[in-house]
Amino acid sequence: MTLFPRALRLPRESFFLLGPRGTGKSTWLRTVRTDARWVDLLREEVFQRLLVAPERFADELRPLPRGSWVIVDEIQRLPSLLHEVHRVIEEQGLRFCLCGSSARKLRRAGVNLLGGRALKRAMHPLLPEEMGAAFDLESTLRHGTLPVILASEEREERLGAYAQLYLKEEVQAEALVRNLPGFARFLPIAALYHGQSLNVANIAREAGVARTTVNGYLEILEETLLCFRVEAHEARLRVRERKHPKWYWCDPGLARAMKGGRGPLAIEERGALFEGWVAQTLRAYRDYRGAFEDFSCWAPTESREVEVDFLLRRGAHFVAVEAKAGARFQENWCAGLRTIAPLRGLKRRIVVCPHGPSMCLRDGIEVVPALEFARMLSQNALFP
After folding, report:
1. Sign of CA dihedral 326, 145, 16, 28
2. 80 and 201: one domain?
3. Domain check: are 105 and 134 in the same one?
4. Which residue in 26, 82, 108, 172 is a FRET match for 374, CA 20 to 30 A apart?
Protein backbone atom coordinates (compact mmCIF):
# COMPACT_ATOMS: atom_id res chain seq x y z
CA MET A 1 0.00 0.00 0.00
CA THR A 2 1.39 3.40 -1.02
CA LEU A 3 1.81 5.81 1.89
CA PHE A 4 1.11 9.35 0.73
CA PRO A 5 2.46 12.34 2.71
CA ARG A 6 -0.52 14.15 4.22
CA ALA A 7 -1.15 17.90 4.25
CA LEU A 8 -2.53 17.80 7.80
CA ARG A 9 -0.13 19.25 10.36
CA LEU A 10 0.27 17.53 13.70
CA PRO A 11 -0.87 19.71 16.63
CA ARG A 12 1.38 20.04 19.66
CA GLU A 13 -1.45 19.58 22.14
CA SER A 14 -4.37 17.19 22.60
CA PHE A 15 -6.78 16.99 19.67
CA PHE A 16 -9.71 15.14 18.15
CA LEU A 17 -9.02 13.70 14.70
CA LEU A 18 -12.26 12.97 12.85
CA GLY A 19 -12.81 11.79 9.31
CA PRO A 20 -14.71 9.20 7.27
CA ARG A 21 -13.62 5.57 7.42
CA GLY A 22 -10.80 4.82 5.02
CA THR A 23 -9.22 8.29 4.91
CA GLY A 24 -6.04 6.98 6.55
CA LYS A 25 -6.31 8.48 10.03
CA SER A 26 -4.76 5.53 11.87
CA THR A 27 -2.05 5.01 9.24
CA TRP A 28 -1.05 8.67 9.43
CA LEU A 29 -0.97 8.66 13.23
CA ARG A 30 1.21 5.55 13.33
CA THR A 31 3.59 7.34 10.95
CA VAL A 32 3.82 10.70 12.71
CA ARG A 33 3.49 9.54 16.33
CA THR A 34 5.62 6.41 16.49
CA ASP A 35 6.27 6.98 20.22
CA ALA A 36 2.60 7.12 21.25
CA ARG A 37 0.78 4.68 23.52
CA TRP A 38 -2.01 3.16 21.40
CA VAL A 39 -5.49 2.32 22.74
CA ASP A 40 -7.53 0.62 19.99
CA LEU A 41 -11.22 0.45 20.85
CA LEU A 42 -11.86 -1.73 17.79
CA ARG A 43 -10.12 -4.51 19.69
CA GLU A 44 -12.97 -6.14 21.53
CA GLU A 45 -10.97 -7.10 24.60
CA VAL A 46 -9.81 -3.48 25.04
CA PHE A 47 -13.32 -2.14 24.48
CA GLN A 48 -14.92 -4.57 26.96
CA ARG A 49 -12.27 -3.99 29.62
CA LEU A 50 -12.69 -0.20 29.55
CA LEU A 51 -16.47 -0.41 29.18
CA VAL A 52 -16.75 -2.42 32.39
CA ALA A 53 -14.10 -0.50 34.35
CA PRO A 54 -13.20 2.85 32.74
CA GLU A 55 -11.22 3.80 35.86
CA ARG A 56 -8.54 1.33 34.73
CA PHE A 57 -7.72 3.70 31.89
CA ALA A 58 -5.90 6.20 34.12
CA ASP A 59 -4.16 3.43 36.05
CA GLU A 60 -2.79 1.86 32.86
CA LEU A 61 -1.40 5.20 31.70
CA ARG A 62 0.12 6.22 35.03
CA PRO A 63 3.67 4.97 34.25
CA LEU A 64 3.90 7.33 31.24
CA PRO A 65 5.96 10.51 31.80
CA ARG A 66 4.24 13.89 31.57
CA GLY A 67 3.89 15.15 28.02
CA SER A 68 3.64 11.65 26.52
CA TRP A 69 1.19 11.02 23.70
CA VAL A 70 -1.73 8.59 23.89
CA ILE A 71 -3.80 7.72 20.80
CA VAL A 72 -7.34 6.46 21.40
CA ASP A 73 -8.65 4.99 18.14
CA GLU A 74 -12.42 4.78 17.41
CA ILE A 75 -13.26 6.95 20.40
CA GLN A 76 -16.90 7.16 19.30
CA ARG A 77 -17.33 3.53 20.41
CA LEU A 78 -16.89 4.58 24.04
CA PRO A 79 -17.59 8.31 24.44
CA SER A 80 -17.91 7.93 28.22
CA LEU A 81 -14.13 7.45 28.22
CA LEU A 82 -13.84 11.21 27.63
CA HIS A 83 -14.41 11.70 31.36
CA GLU A 84 -11.27 9.69 32.05
CA VAL A 85 -9.33 11.46 29.28
CA HIS A 86 -10.24 14.80 30.86
CA ARG A 87 -9.01 13.61 34.26
CA VAL A 88 -5.75 12.18 32.87
CA ILE A 89 -4.98 15.43 31.03
CA GLU A 90 -5.49 17.38 34.26
CA GLU A 91 -3.78 15.02 36.70
CA GLN A 92 -1.05 13.34 34.65
CA GLY A 93 -0.27 15.96 32.00
CA LEU A 94 -0.56 13.52 29.08
CA ARG A 95 -1.47 14.56 25.52
CA PHE A 96 -4.16 12.74 23.56
CA CYS A 97 -5.22 12.19 19.99
CA LEU A 98 -8.85 11.04 20.02
CA CYS A 99 -9.51 9.48 16.65
CA GLY A 100 -12.89 8.56 15.18
CA SER A 101 -15.13 8.24 12.14
CA SER A 102 -18.33 9.65 13.66
CA ALA A 103 -19.07 12.85 15.51
CA ARG A 104 -22.62 11.73 16.33
CA LYS A 105 -22.07 9.83 19.57
CA LEU A 106 -19.40 12.28 20.68
CA ARG A 107 -21.73 15.24 20.27
CA ARG A 108 -24.52 13.50 22.09
CA ALA A 109 -22.20 12.50 24.93
CA GLY A 110 -20.72 15.99 25.02
CA VAL A 111 -17.36 16.58 23.35
CA ASN A 112 -17.17 19.68 25.50
CA LEU A 113 -16.52 17.38 28.46
CA LEU A 114 -12.90 18.18 27.74
CA GLY A 115 -13.64 21.84 28.40
CA GLY A 116 -11.72 23.13 25.40
CA ARG A 117 -8.65 21.08 26.31
CA ALA A 118 -8.55 19.40 22.91
CA LEU A 119 -8.33 20.93 19.45
CA LYS A 120 -10.35 19.61 16.53
CA ARG A 121 -8.81 18.39 13.30
CA ALA A 122 -10.25 16.64 10.23
CA MET A 123 -8.77 14.07 7.86
CA HIS A 124 -10.05 14.28 4.29
CA PRO A 125 -9.68 12.12 1.17
CA LEU A 126 -6.39 12.61 -0.64
CA LEU A 127 -5.57 15.89 -2.35
CA PRO A 128 -3.53 16.39 -5.54
CA GLU A 129 -0.53 17.71 -3.60
CA GLU A 130 -0.57 14.57 -1.41
CA MET A 131 -0.80 12.18 -4.38
CA GLY A 132 1.73 14.00 -6.56
CA ALA A 133 2.29 12.28 -9.90
CA ALA A 134 -0.23 9.57 -8.94
CA PHE A 135 -3.13 12.05 -9.13
CA ASP A 136 -5.37 11.64 -12.15
CA LEU A 137 -8.57 13.69 -12.40
CA GLU A 138 -10.45 11.12 -14.52
CA SER A 139 -9.70 8.35 -12.03
CA THR A 140 -10.56 10.68 -9.15
CA LEU A 141 -14.02 11.43 -10.52
CA ARG A 142 -14.63 7.73 -11.16
CA HIS A 143 -13.13 6.09 -8.07
CA GLY A 144 -12.44 8.95 -5.65
CA THR A 145 -9.33 9.35 -3.53
CA LEU A 146 -10.04 7.46 -0.31
CA PRO A 147 -6.74 5.68 0.51
CA VAL A 148 -8.58 2.46 1.38
CA ILE A 149 -10.02 2.38 -2.17
CA LEU A 150 -6.80 3.39 -3.95
CA ALA A 151 -5.02 0.48 -2.26
CA SER A 152 -7.31 -1.99 -4.03
CA GLU A 153 -6.81 -3.41 -7.53
CA GLU A 154 -10.61 -3.80 -7.84
CA ARG A 155 -11.65 -0.27 -6.95
CA GLU A 156 -15.28 -0.37 -8.06
CA GLU A 157 -15.90 -3.61 -6.18
CA ARG A 158 -14.13 -2.19 -3.14
CA LEU A 159 -16.32 0.93 -3.27
CA GLY A 160 -19.42 -1.26 -3.24
CA ALA A 161 -18.05 -3.11 -0.22
CA TYR A 162 -17.33 0.22 1.48
CA ALA A 163 -20.98 1.24 1.06
CA GLN A 164 -22.14 -2.01 2.64
CA LEU A 165 -19.57 -1.66 5.43
CA TYR A 166 -20.99 1.76 6.22
CA LEU A 167 -24.51 0.34 6.53
CA LYS A 168 -23.32 -2.53 8.70
CA GLU A 169 -20.75 -0.92 10.98
CA GLU A 170 -21.70 2.74 11.19
CA VAL A 171 -25.48 2.49 11.03
CA GLN A 172 -26.70 -0.95 12.04
CA ALA A 173 -24.06 -1.71 14.67
CA GLU A 174 -24.44 1.69 16.32
CA ALA A 175 -28.25 1.54 16.08
CA LEU A 176 -28.35 4.97 14.45
CA VAL A 177 -31.68 4.25 12.71
CA ARG A 178 -34.65 2.05 13.58
CA ASN A 179 -35.81 1.54 9.99
CA LEU A 180 -32.73 0.17 8.20
CA PRO A 181 -34.61 -0.71 4.96
CA GLY A 182 -35.89 2.87 4.76
CA PHE A 183 -32.38 4.20 5.28
CA ALA A 184 -31.06 1.83 2.61
CA ARG A 185 -33.66 3.21 0.15
CA PHE A 186 -32.72 6.74 1.13
CA LEU A 187 -28.95 6.41 0.48
CA PRO A 188 -28.96 6.15 -3.35
CA ILE A 189 -31.46 9.02 -3.52
CA ALA A 190 -29.20 11.17 -1.33
CA ALA A 191 -26.35 10.25 -3.71
CA LEU A 192 -28.36 11.54 -6.66
CA TYR A 193 -28.51 14.94 -4.92
CA HIS A 194 -24.71 15.22 -4.95
CA GLY A 195 -24.01 18.77 -6.17
CA GLN A 196 -27.71 19.70 -6.12
CA SER A 197 -29.90 22.00 -4.04
CA LEU A 198 -31.24 20.02 -1.11
CA ASN A 199 -34.99 19.37 -1.34
CA VAL A 200 -36.07 17.36 1.69
CA ALA A 201 -39.68 17.00 0.56
CA ASN A 202 -38.64 15.44 -2.74
CA ILE A 203 -36.22 13.03 -1.07
CA ALA A 204 -38.89 11.97 1.42
CA ARG A 205 -41.37 11.26 -1.36
CA GLU A 206 -38.87 9.28 -3.43
CA ALA A 207 -37.62 7.25 -0.44
CA GLY A 208 -41.12 6.62 0.93
CA VAL A 209 -40.36 7.95 4.41
CA ALA A 210 -41.49 10.96 6.42
CA ARG A 211 -39.87 14.34 5.94
CA THR A 212 -38.76 14.45 9.58
CA THR A 213 -37.15 11.05 9.08
CA VAL A 214 -35.22 12.33 6.05
CA ASN A 215 -33.92 15.24 8.11
CA GLY A 216 -32.63 12.71 10.62
CA TYR A 217 -31.04 10.60 7.89
CA LEU A 218 -29.28 13.63 6.39
CA GLU A 219 -27.96 14.47 9.83
CA ILE A 220 -26.56 10.94 10.18
CA LEU A 221 -24.66 11.29 6.89
CA GLU A 222 -23.18 14.59 8.06
CA GLU A 223 -22.29 13.35 11.53
CA THR A 224 -20.64 10.22 10.18
CA LEU A 225 -18.64 12.68 8.06
CA LEU A 226 -19.60 11.32 4.64
CA CYS A 227 -21.56 14.38 3.49
CA PHE A 228 -21.72 18.11 4.02
CA ARG A 229 -23.90 21.08 3.10
CA VAL A 230 -22.89 24.38 1.56
CA GLU A 231 -25.32 26.97 2.83
CA ALA A 232 -26.85 29.67 0.62
CA HIS A 233 -25.43 33.18 0.84
CA GLU A 234 -27.73 36.20 0.96
CA ALA A 235 -25.85 38.80 -1.07
CA ARG A 236 -28.91 41.11 -1.30
CA LEU A 237 -28.18 42.23 -4.84
CA ARG A 238 -31.73 43.42 -5.57
CA VAL A 239 -32.81 39.96 -6.71
CA ARG A 240 -34.69 37.21 -4.90
CA GLU A 241 -32.12 34.66 -3.79
CA ARG A 242 -32.41 30.92 -3.28
CA LYS A 243 -32.07 29.84 0.32
CA HIS A 244 -31.71 26.06 -0.03
CA PRO A 245 -28.24 24.67 0.74
CA LYS A 246 -26.38 22.44 -1.71
CA TRP A 247 -25.52 18.87 -0.80
CA TYR A 248 -22.20 17.11 -1.37
CA TRP A 249 -20.58 13.77 -0.60
CA CYS A 250 -16.98 13.91 0.59
CA ASP A 251 -15.67 11.78 -2.27
CA PRO A 252 -16.85 11.36 -5.89
CA GLY A 253 -16.19 7.62 -5.90
CA LEU A 254 -18.31 7.21 -2.81
CA ALA A 255 -21.15 9.27 -4.32
CA ARG A 256 -21.10 6.99 -7.38
CA ALA A 257 -21.00 3.82 -5.28
CA MET A 258 -23.96 4.87 -3.14
CA LYS A 259 -26.15 5.35 -6.22
CA GLY A 260 -24.87 2.15 -7.87
CA GLY A 261 -22.72 3.82 -10.53
CA ARG A 262 -20.12 1.61 -12.20
CA GLY A 263 -17.96 1.69 -15.31
CA PRO A 264 -16.76 4.73 -17.27
CA LEU A 265 -18.18 8.12 -16.37
CA ALA A 266 -21.38 9.15 -18.12
CA ILE A 267 -21.49 12.66 -19.60
CA GLU A 268 -24.49 13.60 -17.46
CA GLU A 269 -22.72 12.80 -14.17
CA ARG A 270 -19.44 14.60 -14.83
CA GLY A 271 -20.71 18.05 -13.87
CA ALA A 272 -21.89 17.10 -10.38
CA LEU A 273 -18.85 14.90 -9.69
CA PHE A 274 -16.39 17.61 -10.73
CA GLU A 275 -18.23 20.29 -8.76
CA GLY A 276 -18.28 17.99 -5.74
CA TRP A 277 -14.54 17.38 -6.04
CA VAL A 278 -13.93 21.15 -6.11
CA ALA A 279 -16.21 21.56 -3.06
CA GLN A 280 -14.31 18.87 -1.13
CA THR A 281 -10.94 20.33 -2.15
CA LEU A 282 -12.06 23.73 -0.85
CA ARG A 283 -13.25 22.15 2.39
CA ALA A 284 -9.97 20.32 2.91
CA TYR A 285 -7.82 23.41 2.43
CA ARG A 286 -10.06 25.44 4.70
CA ASP A 287 -9.40 22.86 7.42
CA TYR A 288 -5.73 22.15 6.68
CA ARG A 289 -4.40 25.59 5.76
CA GLY A 290 -7.05 28.14 6.76
CA ALA A 291 -7.29 29.19 3.09
CA PHE A 292 -10.53 31.03 3.94
CA GLU A 293 -12.98 31.22 6.83
CA ASP A 294 -16.12 29.75 5.30
CA PHE A 295 -17.87 29.25 1.99
CA SER A 296 -21.41 29.32 0.65
CA CYS A 297 -23.32 29.13 -2.64
CA TRP A 298 -25.38 31.84 -4.33
CA ALA A 299 -28.16 31.93 -6.92
CA PRO A 300 -31.17 34.12 -7.78
CA THR A 301 -34.53 32.34 -7.76
CA GLU A 302 -35.55 33.68 -11.18
CA SER A 303 -33.02 31.70 -13.22
CA ARG A 304 -31.65 28.18 -12.91
CA GLU A 305 -28.92 29.10 -15.37
CA VAL A 306 -27.40 31.80 -13.17
CA GLU A 307 -25.57 30.76 -10.02
CA VAL A 308 -22.22 30.85 -8.26
CA ASP A 309 -21.16 27.47 -6.95
CA PHE A 310 -18.90 28.74 -4.17
CA LEU A 311 -18.45 32.09 -2.48
CA LEU A 312 -15.38 32.00 -0.25
CA ARG A 313 -15.08 34.50 2.58
CA ARG A 314 -12.08 35.80 4.47
CA GLY A 315 -13.05 38.66 6.75
CA ALA A 316 -15.01 41.14 4.63
CA HIS A 317 -13.54 39.88 1.34
CA PHE A 318 -14.94 37.30 -1.07
CA VAL A 319 -13.74 35.11 -3.93
CA ALA A 320 -16.42 33.68 -6.25
CA VAL A 321 -15.73 30.26 -7.79
CA GLU A 322 -17.66 28.44 -10.52
CA ALA A 323 -16.83 24.78 -11.31
CA LYS A 324 -17.41 23.63 -14.89
CA ALA A 325 -16.63 20.15 -16.19
CA GLY A 326 -16.66 20.93 -19.93
CA ALA A 327 -13.67 20.21 -22.13
CA ARG A 328 -13.66 23.69 -23.72
CA PHE A 329 -14.35 27.09 -22.22
CA GLN A 330 -17.77 28.59 -22.95
CA GLU A 331 -18.84 32.19 -22.29
CA ASN A 332 -22.09 31.13 -20.61
CA TRP A 333 -20.03 29.59 -17.81
CA CYS A 334 -19.49 33.14 -16.54
CA ALA A 335 -23.16 34.16 -16.22
CA GLY A 336 -23.31 33.79 -12.44
CA LEU A 337 -19.91 35.39 -11.89
CA ARG A 338 -20.98 38.43 -13.92
CA THR A 339 -24.29 38.71 -12.06
CA ILE A 340 -22.58 38.70 -8.67
CA ALA A 341 -19.91 41.24 -9.71
CA PRO A 342 -21.50 44.13 -7.70
CA LEU A 343 -21.08 42.23 -4.39
CA ARG A 344 -19.21 44.42 -1.93
CA GLY A 345 -15.83 42.98 -1.02
CA LEU A 346 -15.62 40.68 -4.06
CA LYS A 347 -11.91 40.41 -4.94
CA ARG A 348 -11.75 37.66 -7.57
CA ARG A 349 -14.00 35.64 -9.85
CA ILE A 350 -12.69 32.26 -10.98
CA VAL A 351 -13.96 29.53 -13.30
CA VAL A 352 -12.39 26.15 -12.46
CA CYS A 353 -12.34 23.64 -15.34
CA PRO A 354 -10.72 20.20 -15.68
CA HIS A 355 -7.90 21.06 -18.09
CA GLY A 356 -6.61 23.69 -20.46
CA PRO A 357 -4.54 26.86 -20.19
CA SER A 358 -5.21 29.59 -17.63
CA MET A 359 -6.90 32.68 -19.05
CA CYS A 360 -7.98 36.10 -17.84
CA LEU A 361 -11.03 37.55 -19.60
CA ARG A 362 -11.53 41.24 -20.35
CA ASP A 363 -13.80 41.77 -17.36
CA GLY A 364 -11.30 40.18 -14.96
CA ILE A 365 -12.80 36.69 -14.70
CA GLU A 366 -10.05 34.08 -14.46
CA VAL A 367 -10.27 30.63 -16.05
CA VAL A 368 -8.09 28.17 -14.16
CA PRO A 369 -7.51 24.40 -14.68
CA ALA A 370 -8.23 22.13 -11.73
CA LEU A 371 -4.63 21.33 -10.74
CA GLU A 372 -3.65 25.00 -10.86
CA PHE A 373 -6.61 25.87 -8.67
CA ALA A 374 -5.61 23.18 -6.15
CA ARG A 375 -2.06 24.58 -6.16
CA MET A 376 -3.38 28.08 -5.45
CA LEU A 377 -5.30 26.70 -2.46
CA SER A 378 -2.28 24.76 -1.21
CA GLN A 379 -0.22 27.95 -1.25
CA ASN A 380 -2.98 30.01 0.36
CA ALA A 381 -2.91 32.27 -2.71
CA LEU A 382 -6.60 32.81 -3.50
CA PHE A 383 -7.06 36.07 -1.66
CA PRO A 384 -4.96 39.10 -2.69
Report:
1. negative
2. no
3. no
4. 26
Separation CA 354–CA 107 (nearest Å): 38
* pLDDT per position as a tens digit, 10-64: 999 999 999 998 999 999 999 999 999 999 999 999 999 999 999 899 999 999 9
Alpha-carbon distance of 261 to 160, in angstroms, equals 9
The H or E element containing residue 318 is: strand 317-323
Residue 2 confidence (pLDDT): 67
Domain containing 43 equals 15-122
Q: Give alpha helix (H) positions in the chain.
A: 25-32, 44-52, 56-61, 81-92, 104-109, 128-131, 137-143, 147-150, 155-165, 180-192, 200-207, 211-223, 252-258, 267-289, 335-339, 370-378
pLDDT (mean) for 299-306: 75
Q: Looking at the structure, do residues 51 and 172 belong to the same domain, yes or no?
A: no
Q: How high is the pLDDT of residue 174?
A: 59
227 lies in the same domain as 310: yes
94 shares its domain with 134: no
User: Using one digit for the tens of pLDDT, what is the confidence trace for 214-269?
Assistant: 998 999 899 888 999 999 997 666 566 677 899 999 999 999 999 888 889 999 99
> Are 102 and 186 contained in the same domain?
no
User: What pTM does this model have?
Assistant: 0.93
